[in-house]
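Table S2 (continued). Query chain:
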Amino acid sequence: MTTRRIWRIGAAFAALTALAACGEDDQQQAEAAPPPPAVTVAKPLVQEIVDRDEFTGRFNPYAIVDVRARVSGYLDQIAFTDGQMVKKGDLLFVIDQRPFRNALQEAEANLVSARARQQLAATDLERSRALVSSSAVAKATFDQRLQDKQVADAGVQSAEAELAKAKLDLEFTEVRAPLDGRISRRLVDVGNLVAGEPSATILTTIVALDPIYFDFDMSESEFLAYSRAAAEGRMASQRDGKVEVSLRLPDEQNWSLKGTLDFLDNRIDPASGTLRARAIVANPDLFLTPGQFGRLGMPGSEPYQAILVPDRAVLSDQARKLIMTVDAEGVVQPKVVRIGPLHDGLRVVRQGITGQDDVIVDGLVRARPGAKVTPEAGKVEVEVAATEN
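Corresponding output:
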C-alpha cells in the first residue's frame, strides 16, 4: 500500500469521526435546550361596573362663624380651651358685667318712676273726667290731663324698652357658642378692651364639622357630558341632590368615604372654564378637618359590562397601549387596546381583547411577540384593599 493511499484513508476516517462528533454535539444540544419561558396567563374579569370620574378638591366646614363681642367692655373671663369641641350655648367669654348690672338697676328704677307718673296721670284724668261734665273743671284742663296721661304712657313704654335693652346688654356680656363645632384659639386675652357693635371685635371662630363639605371644580366638557346624559335619561341629574359619590384621603387607596353631590354653581367661570361643585359628607368621628385635600369619585357612565385586567398587564408602545396574549399554540400575540379608567384596582379595557383571551398577567419580561412561552394558569381578582369601605 502506497503512502498516498494510506494518507487518503486516514483523512476519510478523520472526516467520518468529525461528522460523528458533530452529530453527537447536535443531539446533546437538542437534549439540553431549555423549554419556553413560563408566564402566568388569565382570562380577563368581566363584570358590570359604572365608570368613576375623579376630581381633586378640599374639605371645607359646613358652617363657619366669627364669634364677636356685641357690647363693649373689658374681657373678664375665658371659659374654653383653645381648639376644643363646643356645643351650641356653651359659655366662651365673659365681659366685665358690673357696668351693665348698674345700667340694669337704673333702668328698673326708671321704669318704677315712669309707672308712678303714669298712675298719677291716670288718677288726675279720671278726676277731671268726673268734674268736666258738671263744668267744675274747664275743658282745657281736662285736655291737659289727657295729654299728661298719654305722655306718662309713652314714658312707661320707653322705660320698659330701656329695661329690655339693659337686660339684653347684660346677657351679651356672656358670649356663648352659636353652633356645635370646633373652636379656634382665642384672639383676645383677659384684660383687653373689646369693642361691641357696630365695629365688633372678633374673639375667635367656630367651624361646624359634621357634616362637612367637599368643594371641587369640574371642567366645562365634563359638565356638558353629565348634562347630556341626564337629559337623555341615562344618569341622574347632578343638581337633584341624589348623585352618590365616593371619597378618599391622599394616603388612602380605597374609597373609604361616602357622600352626596348637593350643589353645582349657577355659572361656569369664564376665566378657568370650570364649574364649582360640592359634596356633603358625614363626619361623625370628626376625623375630617377643613382644609384637607382629597379625591372624589363620581359616576361617569351608566352601568355596563366591562373587561378588567391588572394594570401591570398593560404595556406602552409609544402612543399605543398593548396587552400580551397567548394563543392556542403557546405563541405570544400582542394586541393593541384602548384602555379606560381604573376600577377597584383593575384597568378597564374598552377595545382590543375579549373575555376569552388568555392575557399575560405575570412574566411579561420573558414574553416576546411571536415567541413561544409556557403558560401557567392564573386568575384576575379585584384587589381587596380597593374594595374595602
